[in-house]
């Protein structure tokens, strides 16, 4: 019967490995059952035929529970119970045995006045278009005065990777963040109830002024888990790009105005000229304005033309230049696509779950070689032929 249910789930589209994991069966066990017929007969699992020779007796289990429940040790953990008994010359059981017996009796509950640990789910949001999920953060830029920094505020759209707003200030402040975000929403024409703003747990991110501004604008705030450094990957990746640009010398800025002039040039280049790897090598501006579909279609036509000119150089279909339809924030288990035939799968970008073609050409060239070849073809003017 179990195998019948399992095969029904597989016929409905489930992967057999995942289905076996859910019901607690090993894949080899299922394979042996299937060898006996489609339904596999009865479940022959019977568990162990005999009790372990080193198992505790009922009296020993009662002794362990009695010690753990005693007035002396009722507020102590097995990590302190066992050494305390050892100092008295008594050995009842190991720490792991204490924990196992307490767990079996349903007594492994939180004790004491301290607040028990609170599990926090990973913040996950999916954007299918611009102005649905934004990410923002603050990074410091050094000045010529040692130990003094200016702070760069950057707001980006995770779907298009476009920088939606930025500012440089001599200090971190929720007031500055609120002003920046209000102006960015006004410039983008964001409607109430349509946008999620994700950030980490810094003071300016949770400041009262910013929270009041978000509530007024109808924007839902989202935060990383406490003490987790990689829950805001898009902003972290953007800062990495900024600070490792060839023309970022790393020299200190004179002041906030000097830093603003440099950032202004970077934002213009990033939005209008940068071919972003996470969105099929189109510019964030083109993506945000949804012009990338026509651009990628032109690239597909270009590759088909190149293949027609030299078919001997291609052993299969050309690179598809698939468009990113969805971008997810912190998707720990991205959707798996069948690789055969459609060339989809994997993850791209900073912590993003996305749909795109693999970065290897069917003629055996690597993604780096394809990008270089594509640039050369565009330079030669083949894109317009």
Summarize it:
The protein is of the alpha/beta class and 385 residues long. Helix content is 38%, strand content 11%.
Domain tally: 4
Coarse morphology:
flat
CATH class of the largest domain: Alpha Beta
State mean pLDDT (0 to 100 scale). 83
Strand-residue proportion? 5-15%
State the end-to-end distance: 62 Å
Q: For the CA atoms, what is the radius of gyration?
A: 30 Å
> Helix and strand succession?
HHHHHHEEEEHEHEHHHHEEH
Strand order of the largest sheet: 4-3-2-5-6
* Total beta-strand segments: 8
* CATH homolog superfamily of the largest domain: Ribonuclease H-like superfamily/Ribonuclease H
Helix content: 25-40%
Structural class: alpha/beta
Q: Any low-confidence stretches, pLDDT <50, length ≥5? A: 333-385
| CATH architectural name of the largest domain | 2-Layer Sandwich
**If helices are DSSP runs of H or I spanning 4 or more residues, what is the number of helices?**
13
CATH T-level fold name of the largest domain? Nucleotidyltransferase, domain 5
Largest sheet: 5 strands, mixed
What would your notes on this structure say?
With 385 residues, the protein is of the alpha/beta class. The protein has four domains: 2-35; 59-104, no CATH class; 125-274, Ribonuclease H-like superfamily/Ribonuclease H (Nucleotidyltransferase, domain 5), CATH 3.30.420.10; 286-384, no CATH class. 38% of the residues lie in helices and 11% in strands. The chain is built from 13 helices and eight strands. The strands form two sheets. A five-stranded mixed beta sheet has the order 4-3-2-5-6, with helices on both faces. Helix 8 (208-217) links the parallel strand 5 and strand 6. Helix 7 (174-188) packs parallel to helix 8. The longest helix has 18 residues, at 292-309. The radius of gyration is 30 Å and the shape is flat. It starts with a helix and ends in a 6-residue tail after the last helix. 26% of the residues are buried. Residues 333-385 have low confidence and may be disordered.
């Amino acid at each position: 019967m179990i195998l019948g249910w399992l095969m029904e789930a597989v016929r409905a589209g489930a992967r057999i490995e995942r289905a076996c994991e859910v019901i607690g069966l090993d894949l080899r066990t299922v394979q042996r059952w299937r060898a006996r017929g489609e339904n596999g007969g009865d479940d022959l699992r019977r568990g162990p035929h005999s009790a372990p020779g080193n198992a505790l007796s009922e009296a020993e289990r009662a002794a362990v529970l009695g010690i753990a429940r005693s007035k002396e040790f009722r507020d102590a953990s097995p990590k302190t119970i066992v050494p305390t008994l050892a100092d008295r010359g008594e050995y009842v059981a190991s720490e792991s045995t204490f924990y196992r017996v307490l767990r079996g009796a349903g007594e492994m509950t939180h004790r004491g006045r301290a607040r028990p640990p609170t599990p926090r789910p990973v913040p996950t949001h999916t954007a299918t278009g611009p102005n649905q999920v934004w990410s923002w953060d603050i990074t410091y830029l050094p000045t010529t005065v040692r130990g003094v920094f200016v702070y760069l505020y950057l707001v980006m759209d995770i779907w298009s990777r476009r920088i939606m707003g930025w500012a440089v200030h001599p200090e971190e402040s929720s007031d500055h963040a609120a002003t920046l975000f209000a102006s960015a929403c006004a410039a983008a024409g964001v409607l109430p109830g349509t946008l999620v703003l994700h950030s980490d747990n810094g003071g300016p991110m949770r400041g009262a002024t910013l929270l009041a501004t978000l509530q007024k604008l109808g924007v839902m705030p989202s935060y990383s888990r406490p003490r987790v450094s990689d829950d805001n990957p898009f902003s972290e990746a953007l800062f990495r790009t900024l600070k490792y640009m060839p023309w970022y010398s790393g020299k200190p800025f004179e002041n906030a105005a000097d830093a603003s002039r440099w950032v202004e040039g970077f934002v213009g280049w990033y939005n209008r000229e940068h071919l972003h790897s996470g969105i099929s090598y189109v510019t964030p501006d083109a993506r945000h304005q949804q012009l990338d579909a026509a651009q990628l279609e032109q690239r597909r036509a270009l590759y088909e033309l190149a293949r027609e000119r030299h078919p001997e150089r291609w052993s299969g279909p050309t690179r598809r230049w698939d468009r990113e339809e969805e971008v997810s924030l912190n998707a720990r288990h991205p959707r798996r696509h069948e690789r055969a035939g459609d060339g989809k799968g994997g993850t791209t970008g900073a912590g993003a779950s996305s749909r795109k073609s693999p970065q290897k050409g069917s003629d055996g060239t690597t993604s780096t070689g394809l990008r270089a070849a594509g640039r050369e073809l565009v330079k030669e003017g083949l894109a317009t032929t």
